[in-house]
Structure formats: C-alpha cells, structure tokens
Amino acid sequence: QLLLVESGGGLVQAGGSLRLSCAASGDTFSRSVMGWFRQAPGKEREFVAGINWSGGSTSYVDSVKGRFTISRDNAKNTVYLQMNSLKPEDTAVYSCAAAPGTGDFRYWGQGTQVTVSS
Description:
- By secondary structure, the protein is mostly beta strands.
- It is built from no helices and eleven strands.
- The mean pLDDT is about 95.
C-alpha cells in the first residue's frame, strides 16, 4: 500500500516555474516506478513524466521535454516535478502515481492544481 500526497501547485505567470512534490508513505516506494500525470478541463488524463526506482531512467511526453524534470529521493520517499518555462497549456490538475514492481500505476494522489496565466 502507498499513500501519495502532492503539494506545490499554484498560480504562476507564463514563463515561470513551479516545483511539485509527491510524498509517499508505505514500504514499496523505493521499488516503484513513479509518474506524474495531468488532466486539463474537458481533456483526458495524460502522462507527463516517469522515473524508474533508482532514478536512472526517465521519460517525458514530448510537450514538456526540455522544460520539466522528474526526480526522486528514495531516502525521503518523495518524487518531484520541476516545471520551468511554463505555458498556459500546462494548466491542469497534476497527480502523481506509483507502479510497484512491474505492475500498472495503481496508487494515485489526490492531485494539485497548476494554473498558468498568459
């Protein structure tokens, strides 16, 4: 079991930065692939970024490559999403998720709102 709690969302002007955090409680965090997803109003949820258990492998959706960075600190049971050069189209509810072992993303946080004004 993993409980995930996101923080760090807010309102920022275009071109600004935010750092999202996802704190996990449970004993499987260090063995889980972690991901960030987002859902904008009227749109389906989309994958944003993922990171493997060691942090040595990451992946990103094309629209955020070069602007967002996912990282993790297994000692703190926390995964981060550094978001730079934010655009209005990045506005969404951002959620973190955990995929223990080789399974699907089965644990989800409640989400944090990110709003980018033009």
